[in-house]
Amino acid sequence: MATPDAKPAKTAVQLKTPKGTRDWSGADMHLRDEVFQTITDVFKRHGGTPLDTPVFELKEILAGKYGEDARLMYDLEDQGGELCSLRFDLTVPFARWLAMNNIQQVKRYQIAKVYRRDQPAIARGRLREFHQCDFDIAGVYDPMIPDAEILRVVVEVFRALQLDITIKMNHRRILDGLFAVSGVPADRIRPISSAVDKLDKMPWAEVKKEMVEEKGLPEDVADRIGGYVQRSGTIRDMLKTLQADAELCANGDVKAGLDDVSLLADYLEALEVADTVSFDLSLARGLDYYTGLIFEVIVNHPSSTLTTANGTTATIPAESVGDGSEEGAKQQSASKKGKKAGEDPASQVGSIAAGGRYDNLVGMYGRRQIPCVGISFGVDRIFTILKARREQEEESRRTRLTDVYVMAFGGKEFDGLLLERMAVARRLWDAGVRTEFAPKVKPRLPQQFKAAGDVPLAVILGQDELAAGQVRLKVLGQGEDDEKDRGRLVAMDDLVSEVKKLLL
Amino acid sequence: MATPDAKPAKTAVQLKTPKGTRDWSGADMHLRDEVFQTITDVFKRHGGTPLDTPVFELKEILAGKYGEDARLMYDLEDQGGELCSLRFDLTVPFARWLAMNNIQQVKRYQIAKVYRRDQPAIARGRLREFHQCDFDIAGVYDPMIPDAEILRVVVEVFRALQLDITIKMNHRRILDGLFAVSGVPADRIRPISSAVDKLDKMPWAEVKKEMVEEKGLPEDVADRIGGYVQRSGTIRDMLKTLQADAELCANGDVKAGLDDVSLLADYLEALEVADTVSFDLSLARGLDYYTGLIFEVIVNHPSSTLTTANGTTATIPAESVGDGSEEGAKQQSASKKGKKAGEDPASQVGSIAAGGRYDNLVGMYGRRQIPCVGISFGVDRIFTILKARREQEEESRRTRLTDVYVMAFGGKEFDGLLLERMAVARRLWDAGVRTEFAPKVKPRLPQQFKAAGDVPLAVILGQDELAAGQVRLKVLGQGEDDEKDRGRLVAMDDLVSEVKKLLL
Questions:
Q1: Which residues pair with B297 in a beta bridge?
Q2: How confident is the model at residue A138, as a pLDDT?
Q3: How many CB atoms lie within 10 A of CB B312?
Q4: Residues of B in Cβ contact (< 8 Å) with A149
Q5: How many other C-beta atoms lie within 10 A of the C-beta of residue B219?
Q6: Maximum distance among all alpha carbons in chain A?
Q7: B169 within a domain of the structure (yes/no)
Q8: B422 vs A145, B425, B492, CA distance in Å?
Q9: Mean of per-residue pLDDT scores for chain A
Q10: Is the pLDDT score of B46 beyond 90?
Q11: Which residue ranges have biased composition labelled Low complexity (chains A, B) (predicted)?
Q12: Residue A110 lies in a domain
């Protein structure tokens, strides 16, 4: 019977997180930690060393690195002193760190949040505060060896995450050479390249239309491009085809690129990664700073992965991974055009990792060039896929990871046995076992079973058993039977070892 | 022979991190990760569930929580939309999360950076971007059970970190009652309390002087206070003394506080923690929001811990842990007065963890009160102590954690065996072994030994051995002998198991 007058007079604080941000807790947080741990294990296996940089950088460090996307940067208020902005990606702070410390070679990884004042779409996982997870190899090495290792890292990460993927790969110099041979003027290569990059989302006819009508390319030039960029296949097959094309190979960039890819093919075979790679001439990647190998990772069977248990289809975030929102914008516009683009669900998912070689970025800080190749995993997008799969598999979504719940029961004279429960918990903690008990002096048994929730084991104390130096140990999860069957007797001194056996 | 003219004309970007921030990498980063992992393991052992909140919060959420320290808050620039600030601690975001999600009970932990525009002193580890590491128990429970578990968590953390500590403990209601009984007017209790809190850094005569001369307290009132607050001892001894003081116990606050501490004593004994606790009536803690138990953790023998290998004394950061810079300021001023305060090095170290019960903070968001008790670990300060100890022990400071370096050697016809090295690395990676190899086609053997650095094992390939299906496995670290002795022969198929045996 609330009347308008019943509203509280004072304006309460709005209880929310800032636009485009979220809290992480419970099952989501556990799954996110699992993903981070899995990826970190692979990075360490390859000699990766962690780097952590401040959440904000001097504005002048970030300036001139992101083109027009820089308008999405979060600035700190000028409160006197230096002007700073929140980091926009992890690549520029890495380049700053290399230059600042004059580091000649390193394998570094970093998992951290980055910040972009983009239009958020939280339901699709498109946030203003989101994660990047980068592994980069910096240093002067023999050609393509680090590049091959990066692709090996990609394969190991997704094998560990049990995601079936394809690495789409291309080479900037082959692409640039191919445009030149087709008759694209040097100053038109980047815009034409960005049109070609949409081929995974649009049919060729539409891409051609954009090149001819919007970008003013002669139709015969567009057709020549089309003859090349619609090709993809295994590295060996594509190499054979391209190396047989005398006109193409006469171009110095193409020749150099093919030499790189040829070396790479040998290395990927030695590393047993070649089968996962598709050499796709339409792959262009958004950012200007790539100078050699470029690649993107897509999930092979997203349709089966993405149907959730209740039959709805999980939506995969379309934000950019790794290198700026140009990519994200591309995918957003592509998903609007989803129906025209055909019904392949893979095209809706977009890439879940991406990277390439960037040999000139560190030199922008006015010191020595340090060639780099790296990969950025789109953790939020990977998280969304794994979460949908986990829900589909109806795996338990435990919010805590406690192993043992210590309970007590008794008759009329029952005093709750709190100190005894504490002493048993202390034994288990001392042994490293994750243990809880009801923080009540005299809890009732049903309360304790309820509080135990999804904890797998119970230790149940009773006055008589304690007097005999014993406790009851019970595997939980038997539903109704839990309260009837109070488990088997175990000597107090054997408790830790018995619990550990059951937890194995 | 550089002349002034030789200077580069263009103004280079200043390569630095913003004031009061730092990068973390190499051995520091590994040690920091170890500390985080150790602490997290203990939190999980107690049923803790992780929370991660955005790095910035709405300004109005943070408003009115930090008193005059709020001037140290970092604001984001108003770029249209909501006004936000970087988080100042982890307690207020936790309270916001509890209120926003109407969570009635939880054990949550959070390890994250917080931001304060304080005057940095980087050499002493006093930074503007620094870590907090919080564990809090929220919910209505029987009295003192969660409080006892928090102290147990403290003991387990420092036992795991192998730091010998004392928990100094007091109770806000005992302290308030004691001031009232001594004759302090109610509105003078907080300033007098803050003077008393300096007793661990100053002799009583100085504290008394401050109370009488600066804060206008009658001398006899100050003397009565002095009679109480200079007392500390075991919980049981102090309880006996205080409970025997009829005048004190007639005060309702004192009585209630002593009942709490009496319960706590039982629980701490059951949890085998009581020996670590000192009941210290001078402990007051800075923040207003504490309502019951308060505590601080100090290192027992910092002098031995803090002398580094080269004989210099490591300086421990003096910033606040957990609850605002008031504490930090107090410690800074105390360290200026270090000589007057006597030569006990413990007084220079300050607290490395602190916390208490705060039952009214969540209710400030206009919803239901949720009583909380928590602890905040000063991770940067703990890190500094452990780093000094590690240097003292001259432990290896490995910057990477690679287990195996795969090498090759050969005579005149040696082609570098790159593909073979890759194939062996791939085998080891498949088995989860952390492996690297020289990213060169034809590396020389000394180069490879140099690159292996502190990696403990080498697998050495030779053409003849490979032809026989064998490789050489060698434990590194023999200095000069490394290049002469090329290890023992192992069948390729046994390599993984042999390596794993050596890594155990």
A1: B167, B353
A2: 96
A3: 11
A4: 439
A5: 11
A6: 96
A7: yes
A8: 9, 5, 14
A9: 85
A10: yes
A11: 308-318
A12: yes
Q: Which domain holds residue B418?
A: 404-503
Residues in chain A: 504
A248 and A350 in one domain?
A: yes
Residues of A in contact with B75 (CB under 8 A): 76-77, 79
| Residue A214: DSSP 8-state | I
Give the separation between CA B283 and CA A274, rounded to whole angstroms.
65
**At residue A468, does pLDDT exceed 50?**
yes
- Cα separation, B268 vs A299, in Å, equals 53
Over residues A287-336, the pLDDT tens digits come to 678 899 999 999 996 444 444 334 444 444 433 343 433 333 333 333 33
Q: Mind listing the pLDDT tens digit for each residue in B231-271? A: 999 999 999 999 999 999 999 999 999 999 999 999 999 99
Domains of chain B: total = 2
Is A41's CB within 8 Å of B146's CB? Answer: no
pLDDT in tens, B364-382: 887 788 999 999 999 998 9
Give B307's DSSP letter. Answer: B
Q: Which residue does chain A place closest to B401, by CA atoms?
A: A47
Calpha distance A125→A286 (Å, rounded) = 21
Report yes or no: B102 at the A interface, CB cutoff 8 Å.
Answer: no
**Gyration radius of chain A's alpha carbons:** 29
Determine contact, residues A353/A39, Cβ cutoff 8 Å.
Answer: no
The residue assigned the tokens 């670990």 is: B377
Give B54's contacts in chain A (Cβ within 8 Å). Answer: 17-18, 21-23, 129
Structure tokens at B269: 């004994």
Q: What is the CATH number of the domain that holds B436?
A: 3.40.50.800
Q: Which amino acid is at B7?
A: K
Read off φ and ψ for residue B148, nearest 5 degrees.
-65, -40
Query: Residue A63 to residues A82, A112, A287, B22, B376: CA-CA distances in angstroms?
Result: 14, 20, 15, 20, 37
